Amino acid sequence: AQKVTQAQTEISVVEKEDVTLDCVYETRDTTYYLFWYKQPPSGELVFLIRRNSFDEQNEISGRYSWNFQKSTSSFNFTITASQVVDSAVYFCALSRGGGGNKLTFGTGTQLKVEL
Amino acid sequence: GAVVSQHPSWVICKSGTSVKIECRSLDFQATTMFWYRQFPKQSLMLMATSNEGSKATYEQGVEKDKFLINHASLTLSTLTVTSAHPEDSSFYICSARKYGQDSYEQYFGPGTRLTVT
């Protein structure tokens, strides 16, 4: 069975602070994919990143960066210099090899960025 | 490209009535569509996987007779909530996987908020 744990239910930061959202996963598959999605108040999911299990390189995209560590089964997400527009619920998700298969979502982390 | 729409975006219905929600891939063909349900402040839970031209595969605990899914074409899947009750009030989200491409992404619709009174 696959499982995704996001232990942080809610995080509040002041604008321009850096913030890291944690994600720990469980799977018996050797090939799998990890995702991060953003869900603003409107409800529509916004795709942020996909990472396959064979690629442990960290990735940076603007103010966003991701740290994938298979040794600890973690796929953490860091926002640098947070902005109010980053306020949303962030979900980490896992799928089996092939990626287009069904997603198992974590419980989400509500990020609130205040002025 | 890869836009998925849902209709309606929100709906209010009376207890005991049925509601149909449409999920359309606007600029691509989708062999597989997924239906998720999200309760307030909770995660997305997969309800069923829908493949074009075949019966949907439901997740454990999801009543197939209550949540009827039809995937009649490569661009349309529908979810019908039959005999809706207040506990069915939720945010329903669909996603679609592209046909003919080993896509690693699911393209999500904007969701449909259902309120049963």
List the helices and strands of chain A in order: EEEEEEEEEEEE
Query: What structural category arises from helix and sheet content of chain B?
Result: mainly beta
Count the beta strands of chain B: 11
**Apparent shape of chain A:** globular
Number of helices of chain B: 0
By secondary-structure content and strand pairing, the structural class of chain A works out as mainly beta
Q: How far is it from the N-terminal to the C-terminal residue of chain B, by CA? A: 37 Å
Radius of gyration of chain A: 14 Å
Protein model, in words:
The complex is a heterodimer of chains A (115) and B (117). Chain A is mostly beta strands and 115 residues long. Chain A has no helices and 12 strands. Chain A has strands at residues 3-5, 10-14, 19-21, 24-26, 32-39, 46-52, 59-61, 64-69, 74-79, 88-96, 104-105, 109-114. In chain A, a hairpin with a 4-residue loop joins β8 (64-69) and β9 (74-79). The radius of gyration of chain A is 14 Å and the shape is globular. Chain A starts with a strand and ends with a strand. The mean pLDDT of chain A is 93. Chain B is mainly beta and 117 residues long. Helices cover 0% and strands 54% of the residues of chain B. Chain B contains no helices and 11 strands. Chain B has strands at residues 4-7, 10-13, 19-25, 30-38, 44-51, 57-58, 67-73, 76-81, 90-98, 107-108, 112-116. In chain B, β5 and β6 form a beta hairpin. The radius of gyration of chain B is 13 Å and the shape is globular. At the A-B interface, β6 and β11 of A face β5, β9 and β10 of B.
Structure in a nutshell:
Chain A is mainly β and 115 residues long.
Q: Any chance you could write out the topology, listing elements then pairs?
A:
The complex is a heterodimer of chains A (115) and B (117).
Chain A: E1 3-5, E2 10-14, E3 19-21, E4 24-26, E5 32-39, E6 46-52, E7 59-61, E8 64-69, E9 74-79, E10 88-96, E11 104-105, E12 109-114
Parallel strand pairs in A: 2-12
Antiparallel strand pairs in A: 1-4, 3-9, 5-6, 5-10, 7-8, 8-9, 10-11, 10-12
Chain B: E1 4-7, E2 10-13, E3 19-25, E4 30-38, E5 44-51, E6 57-58, E7 67-73, E8 76-81, E9 90-98, E10 107-108, E11 112-116
